Structure formats: C-alpha cells, structure tokens
Recover the amino acids of this structure.
C-alpha cells in the first residue's frame, strides 16, 4: 500500500491496482418543513408526530413543492460551481416498502435541478479537483424499526418526505483519504451555505459508495460495486479498503466481479452482497403527474447567487492574502464555518496591532485542545472570541508572558472570564521594570556565586538555570526578554 | 307543484329562496325516495340522518345568499368526505373514513350544500358500466338490468332516478359524460386544472377531473360555478379567471363555429348514432351556429394512448394501498405476503388488470415503446385540437358509440368495454372541457347523448351551445319508477 494520501494502491504478485471511487451523497436539506408538505423536520421527535396526510400518502393527497428546499438545492449547486438547470422534472421511483407510504419515492431522474460542477480538495500533495455529475432533490423514506416488537416491524414516518439532495460525484476519487477530504469539503461548503447541517450522527449526511479497481495506469473503469447507505467517514474508508481488496483478490484468482449492491457490516468490517444486477429493482421511473416540471428563471438563480456567502476556497485565499496566514493554517481555519467565524472575530477584536501568528496558534493550539478534550464544537467554545483576542493582545503588548497567558487561559475557561480582570485580580501583570528586575537578578547572582563563576568560565548551559531562577523569584511574572538582556549584561 | 325530488337544482334553489320549500323538506323528499330505491343500488354510504339534521339547522338559520342554500346533494364515492366513509368502490378502502375533505366537496358545503351520501362507482373509477364496483352493480333507472354507464354510474343513476338534484362525478376517460349519455342526463368534464384534485382518490392524475352532473344544462352551470376553484393544494390546479357560468349562460350562439371531425365516424358505428349526430348538426344550425368540417387526424390513436397513460399512472397511484397505513390489511407471514394477500383480496379484476398493464408499460425495456410513445402521441392529439380551434369555437360529436347495454353484456370483454370511451377519451388526453347532453333515443328508447368539446378554459361557450341545443332538442327522460313496483 502506498503512503501517498491521494492514491491507494494494492500490490498483488506483480500487479499494482488502484481503486476508483465515486460517491452518491445524500444530504438532508436544512429546512423547517418537508419537500412536499408542511410537516416539521425537527430531529428526535416522538415517532409519527411529524407526519401530515401527504407524508402518510392518504388517498387524494397531493404533493406541493416547498420553494425553500428548491432554493437550498440551487444554492448548494452554486457552491459546487455547478450548472443550475432552468427546468427540472420530478419523477416517481416505484417500489414497495413498509416505510415508503406512497409506494414510490418522488425524485429527479432524467432532469435534475443541478448539473455538472466540481469541488477542490486540499490534499497534502496539493489540490485536487473532483467532478460533480449532478445534484437532485428527492424525498426521504420513513424508518422501519425491527427491534422493538419481537414479531412486528414498526414504522416511524417522521422522516418520510424530508428533503434530501443527492450529490453524485464523478468516479474521480482514488483513496480513502480523498474520500475523507471530499466528504469534509462537501460538508464544509453546505454548512457555509446553511443548506445542510452535515450531522452524520443524525443521518443528515449519508453516502452510497461506488468502488471498482483497475491496474494502475489503465484508463478503463472496472466493474463497480455499490456499497449502500454508509453513515460515517470512517465506515466509508473501512468499506472501501475491504471492498477494493476483495475485488483485487477476485481478479487475481481469475474470477469476474459481479456488478451488485452490497452492504457494509460495521461489526465484521466486511461488505456483503445485498442484491445482484439481475435482482436489481425495476423502479419504473416516470414523471410525477401530480407535479409540473420545476422551472426557475435566470433572475431567480441570480438572486440566489447574490445571497451566497464567502465560501471556504475564497475565504482561504483571503486569509492568506489579507491576514498573511500560511496556506496550511488557512486550510484548517476555513474547513469549518464556525472556526472561520471565530477566527475572524478574534482578528476583528484584536484591533490594529493584531498578531495573526499568535491568533492562529492560540486557536489551533490551546483552544482546539480544550474543545477536543471537552468534545464540543467551537460554536460552544467556553472562551469567547472577544476574550481570546484580549488575551492575545495582553501577550502582544507585553503585559503578560506566554507562560502566564497559559495560566490565565485555564482560569478563563471557568465562565469565559475577561483575562484583564484575572491579570489584575491575581496580580499576574508581567514585571517589566528594569530596575526591579536588576535588583532581583543581583540577588540571585549573589546567592549563586559559584555557578556564576562556572558560567563565566564557559559553562554556558548555566544561563538557563539563572533564567529559571529569575522567573521563579518573580512568580513567573518577569518579562523573559528583559531577564535575558539583564542576565547577559550582569553575568 | 311537482314532486320536490323531480325539480331541477335551479327550481329547487328558487323554491327554497322563496321559502316555498324548506331545506329539510327537500332532504326528506330525497331520503324518502332513496329508501324506496334501494334496488338501484346508487348509494354505497348513506348520510341521511346527518343530512336531515343539517337541513333542519339550515332552516333554523337560513342563508339565502349562498349558491346552494340548504341543497341536499349526493356525491360520487371518490371524493374524500370528512368523517364519512370513502371507498372509491373498492374493498381495499371498505373501512376507510377520512378526516379531511376534498376541495371540490368543501366548495359545495361552503355554498350551503348538504351531503346526502356517497354514490356507487366503478372501483377506483376504472370501468364504463359500474360493474367493477365492490359494492355491486347499479341499475339504470331507464330500464331494468341496464348499466348506468361508468365510472360515475351511481351518480348518473341517482340523478335519473331523482335521488339527488345534482351530483358530481369524476372523468378520467369519459366517466362523467358516458354515464350521463346512458341515463339521459347532463355531464360536464371541465378543463384539466379547473377543479382541484385535492382529496379525490386518484386514478390517473394527468387525466382525472371532477365535474358537475345534472338534469339540465343550467344546473351544470350553477354547480360548476361552485366547484371550480384555484387550489394551492393541487400543483396542477390552474389560476385562471373563472366565469359566473350560470349568470353568463346564454342561448345566443349565433355565428359560433362548430366543427364536425370526420375521424369520429368510426367503423361499425350504429346508424342511429350517425343519425343522432346529423340531427345534432341540424339543431346546432337552427341555433344559429355555423357548421364546419374539421379533421382531428390522430383520433384513432387516442384509445390505445389512453390505455397506456391511464393504467401507467394508476399502477403507481394505487401502490399506496398496501395494508400498512389504512384500509384493508390481510394477515401474512411477512411483509411481502401481507402485501400480496391484501392487494389480492382488496382489488377487483379490472383494477388488477390495469395495474398489470400499467406496470408493464413502465417497465425498463418497454417504457420507450409504450409510455414515452404514448406521451408523444398525446401531444399530437392535443395539437390536432389546437389546430382545429384555429377554425372553430367548439366541436360536436356523439358522446358514445352506443346506448346503454345490459348488465353482464360486456363484463367479460374488456376491449369492447374500453371502446365505449372512444369519443370521450381524446378530450381527457387534450385536457379540454366537454359536455354530454341527451339528444335522442335509440330503437329501444334508451337515451343517446351528444358531446360538445370546447377550447381550454372555455366552459362558458360549451355550456352556451349545450344550453341552446338543449332547448331545440327538448329531450325528456321517461322514467317509470319500475324499481319501486
């Protein structure tokens, strides 16, 4: 296996295989109501409490398109630099299942609302462009629950009719790491746009993963298998690794790969055949006669374009150009909209005499460590951007040392306390009066005459010892720069 | 004064407004007659007690400004009615009681109408004789053992038997006009998008349209005015300016151009239909209309096109009747077994036949040859009409290729049954308004109808032509109340 993040190679005998991956991501549209009804979409409600007559497919009930969901899909298309289609058509995908009340899912088949686009991935080896084939709107199904009643399956229709965007990539991905980067980037873009919250635990983002393998260098695509409905990046990566190796093994044994739909068993870490191509459903797609073709004018699209916020790629470029942040740091800062927002707020609050490097280091260092430890998002940060900016400014203007700042930071965690107040109350202001420091250092040299002599004789390592003693004597408040200067002079 | 139940809607409204008849008296009259007319089998569900109660309430607090002040009305059992069982003539909805109301029926209640009950129909409106209903055949009041037409057979029979002053049906391929023709009554299918489909059990969504059925043309104009409305709950509802059809009704059709399509002269059409049509042309001329020969070249493809499009949509529309959420559920070993048993027991033969046809024509590998081609032909049929309407204001044809047939006569011959729709189906495919008015009788004295087809949204012209021809034709049903003897 290759160490390169952008490719995943499998060597068997003398053959080197690469894996080819395409994703169909199902992203739940952020919307208060469903795609064709006014029911609420709130997560976690009691079963079957968010179900309208339309969602439960009562006789004579008709779907009416939710304009907000259409706008969300178009915005997402714009975020994917994709072609927005002025005319799209809703089709019925017919199949029977207990949690599909209509007996068909309303989806878009031949004429999706969004056409081709692309997404840029920031890989360690550089940028990579992944093609988007299409984005279409469709209804989610309900949920079948098999483990509550021993002899019956129960159905919860709260999710039935919730709007999903299916975002289909081209088979441009070549490794589990790229899949990771792709999902994160999609999620990032949609969170910037406010079109999908990207919450994988709540099922707002799931994917069908298409995997095939081929001899590296070949341009033909191998027979693919589709792994259905994987709901975490980690599982996607595990499934791809298992599936790619399974396919390579088959080829090496001289066997054919069947085009089929497979399931990923997360407990056994393996994919299993769900149904073969021959058993594939005939969905009998046809245009839904209850809905007219969806037509959007250029004017409508342009209005939405004007509402699009700055997206991660542009923001990154601006952070680099305007704030002189390194490309590496910029990538981290823009990857999540809340982090970017936090950073920008810190920058704004720092004022004129701002120190970008300090800001980046404190956010990606100390703050991230705390968030990780507490397992919370930056939006719930215990320290506000305003107070972190103050802390950074205190360091920058020499009021406190970096070391003291760390102590203050810990104290700030307890209720987002203003660092200025902590400095004053605890008397942590940095000692920068040269006379006071000279007196302090004179005393230390006096108390350590022998070591001072050794230093003068060439034992330079001892300089650190004197710095340490000085800091200790000052209770950590001494300005380290001044200590250095004075020590050099006096020793 | 003649019996209340034999009054036209217009006469009944007039009498109620003039306080000569109370709403409760009217309700009693229809209920009494219905009690003596069980043999017709028009009702699937009676709402008599409630109707009598509501009529009394109306009389206590009358509002004569309403368009249907305290008028008892029975409706086809395809309209969902709040708290009143709605079966669509099917076993699978045998126990189904909606907690919502269709827009069309709501419009009627809003104007003072009171529900008498739910009228028999072919199962899911699939049929031309009311013989596919789970609730049994309906007798045509014209003669014993004669079908009342379909699918709105309970509606046409109830009208002809004076069990309701007016009624509403739905028309997917002729289900209002054909039964009207078979019972000597008037039936209007409005332009697609005129009446909301919200709350109507769907058969074929792109063709289904509700419409009035009445004893004369004026009554249809009154009822259309009530039921036609733009409805945001139906995405195919059209927001156009609706006329005050009844007050704008006129017999002045002088100079209107009426087209006679040569393609409607089909092989094997009985002489009496040909004669009726000729008579109709003479009546139209008498009314001052100008007769123009036209061509609708794709007419012969209409029936096969219809029998692809309608079953395709139906196969999908009926997928929701699966025993999971409401309606009939047969027990099964597992989900699939439950589906199979529920749908086997819940659906009748004709419904199963159409679900099978629909499933077939939508299947991969057949879609292009059947469904897609049918949609293209449908466009050609529409264009035929568009072109014709460059020359004429309306089109006159027979309503059906024959008069009512005997119960059982065609029930084993679906194709011959389907042929009944030959003159009505193109109108649905093109989404146009069409009316059937009684125009004469055949050798057995069974009624025959003429159809007037209009431009989209031009129900007024259709009604006006029908109104003036009706006067010249001066048709009267000869109902002997044979079923009471």
């Amino acid at each position: 296996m290759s160490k390169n993040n952008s490719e995943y190679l499998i060597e068997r005998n003398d053959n080197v295989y690469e894996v080819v991956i395409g994703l169909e991501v199902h992203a739940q549209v952020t919307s208060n109501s469903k795609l064709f009804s006014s029911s609420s979409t709130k997560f976690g409600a009691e079963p079957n409490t968010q179900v309208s007559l339309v969602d439960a497919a009562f006789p004579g009930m008709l779907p009416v398109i939710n304009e907000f969901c259409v706008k969300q899909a178009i915005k997402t298309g714009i975020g994917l630099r994709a072609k927005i289609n002025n005319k799209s058509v809703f089709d019925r995908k017919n199949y029977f299942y207990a949690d599909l009340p209509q007996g068909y899912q309303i989806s878009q088949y031949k004429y999706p609302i969004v056409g081709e686009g692309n997404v840029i991935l920031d890989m360690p080896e550089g940028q990579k462009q992944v093609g988007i084939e299409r984005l279409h709107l469709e209804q989610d199904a309900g949920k079948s629950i098999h483990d509550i009643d021993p002899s019956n399956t129960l159905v919860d229709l709260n999710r039935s009719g919730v709007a999903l965007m299916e975002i289909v990539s081209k088979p441009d991905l070549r490794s589990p790491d790229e899949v990771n980067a792709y999902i994160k980037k999609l999620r990032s873009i949609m969170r910037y746009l406010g079109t999908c919250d990207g919450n994988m635990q709540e099922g707002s983002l799931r994917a069908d993963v298409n995997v095939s393998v081929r001899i590296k260098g070949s341009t033909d695509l191998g027979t693919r298998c589709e792994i259905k409905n994987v709901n975490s990046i980690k599982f996607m990566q595990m499934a791809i690794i298992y599936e790619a190796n399974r396919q390579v093994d088959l080829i090496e044994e001289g066997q054919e790969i069947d085009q089929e739909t497979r399931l990923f068993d997360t407990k056994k870490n393996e994919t299993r055949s769900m149904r073969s191509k021959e058993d594939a459903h005939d969905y009998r797609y046809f245009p839904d006669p209850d809905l007219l073709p969806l037509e959007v004018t250029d004017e409508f699209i342009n209005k939405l374009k004007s509402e699009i916020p700055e997206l991660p790629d542009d923001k990154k470029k601006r952070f680099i150009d305007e704030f002189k942040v390194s490309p590496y740091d910029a990538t981290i800062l823009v990857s999540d909209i809340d982090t970017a927002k936090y950073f920008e707020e810190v920058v704004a609050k720092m004022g004129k005499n701002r120190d970008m490097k300090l800001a980046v280091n404190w956010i990606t260092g100390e703050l991230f460590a705390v968030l990780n430890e507490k397992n919370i998002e930056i939006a719930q940060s215990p320290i506000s951007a305003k107070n972190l900016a103050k802390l950074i400014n205190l360091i920058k203007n020499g009021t406190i040392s970096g070391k003291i700042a760390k102590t203050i930071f810990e104290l700030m965690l307890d209720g987002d306390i203003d660092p200025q107040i902590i400095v004053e109350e605890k008397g942590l202001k940095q000692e920068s009066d040269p006379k006071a420091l000279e007196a302090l250092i004179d005393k230390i040299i006096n108390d350590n005459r022998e070591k001072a002599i050794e230093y003068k004789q060439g034992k330079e390592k001892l300089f650190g010892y004197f710095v340490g003693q000085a800091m200790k004597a000052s209770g950590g408040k001494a300005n380290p720069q001044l200590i250095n200067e004075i020590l050099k002079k006096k020793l | 004064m003649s019996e209340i139940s034999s009054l036209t809607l217009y006469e009944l409204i007039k009498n109620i407004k003039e306080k000569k008849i109370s709403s409760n008296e009217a309700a009693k009259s229809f209920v009494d007659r219905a009690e003596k007319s069980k043999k017709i089998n028009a009702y699937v569900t009676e709402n008599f007690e409630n109707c009598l109660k509501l009529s009394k309430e109306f009389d206590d607090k009358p509002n004569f400004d309403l368009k249907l002040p305290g008028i008892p009305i029975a409706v086809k059992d395809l309209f969902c009615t709040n708290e009143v069982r709605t079966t669509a003539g099917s076993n699978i909805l045998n126990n189904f009681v909606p907690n919502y109301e269709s827009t069309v029926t709501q419009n009627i209640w809003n104007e003072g109408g009171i529900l008498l009950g739910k009228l028999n129909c072919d199962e899911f409106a699939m049929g031309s004789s009311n013989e596919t209903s789970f609730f049994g055949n309906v007798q045509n009041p014209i003669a014993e053992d004669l079908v009342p037409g379909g699918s709105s057979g309970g509606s046409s029979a109830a009208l002809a038997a004076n069990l309701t002053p007016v009624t509403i049906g739905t028309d997917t391929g002729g289900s209002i006009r054909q039964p009207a023709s078979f019972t000597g009554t008037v039936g209007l299918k409005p332009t697609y998008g005129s009446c909301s489909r919200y709350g109507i059990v769907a058969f074929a969504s792109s063709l289904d349209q509700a419409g009035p059925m009445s004893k004369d043309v004026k009554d249809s104009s009154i009822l259309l005015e009530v039921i036609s409305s733009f409805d945001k709950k139906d995405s195919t509802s059209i927001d156009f300016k609706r006329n005050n059809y009844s007050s704008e009704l006129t017999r002045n059709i002088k100079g209107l151009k009426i087209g006679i399509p040569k393609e409607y002269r089909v092989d094997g059409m009985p002489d009496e239909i040909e004669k009726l049509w000729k008579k109709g042309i003479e009546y139209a001329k008498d009314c001052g209309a100008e007769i123009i020969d036209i061509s609708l070249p794709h007419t012969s493809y209409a029936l096969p096109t219809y029998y692809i499009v309608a079953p395709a949509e139906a196969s999908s529309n009926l997928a929701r009747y699966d025993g999971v959420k409401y309606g009939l559920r047969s027990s099964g070993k597992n989900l699939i077994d439950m589906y199979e048993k529920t749908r086997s027991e819940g659906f009748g033969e004709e419904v199963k036949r159409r679900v099978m046809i629909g499933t077939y024509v939508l299947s991969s590998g057949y879609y292009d040859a059947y469904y897609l081609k049918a949609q293209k032909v449908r466009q050609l049929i529409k264009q035929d009409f568009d072109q014709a309407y460059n020359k004429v204001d309306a089109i006159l044809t027979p309503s059906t290729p024959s008069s009512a047939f005997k119960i059982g006569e065609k029930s084993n011959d679906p194709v011959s049954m389907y042929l009944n729709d030959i003159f009505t189906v193109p109108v649905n495919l093109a989404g146009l308004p069409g009316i059937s008015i009684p125009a004469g009788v055949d050798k057995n004295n069974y009624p025959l109808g003429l159809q007037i087809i209009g431009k989209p949204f031009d129900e007024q012209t259709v009604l006006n032509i029908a109104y003036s021809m009706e006067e010249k034709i001066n048709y009267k049903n000869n109902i002997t109340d044979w079923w009471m003897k």
About this structure: Chain B has 15 helices and eleven strands. Chain B has a mean pLDDT of 97.
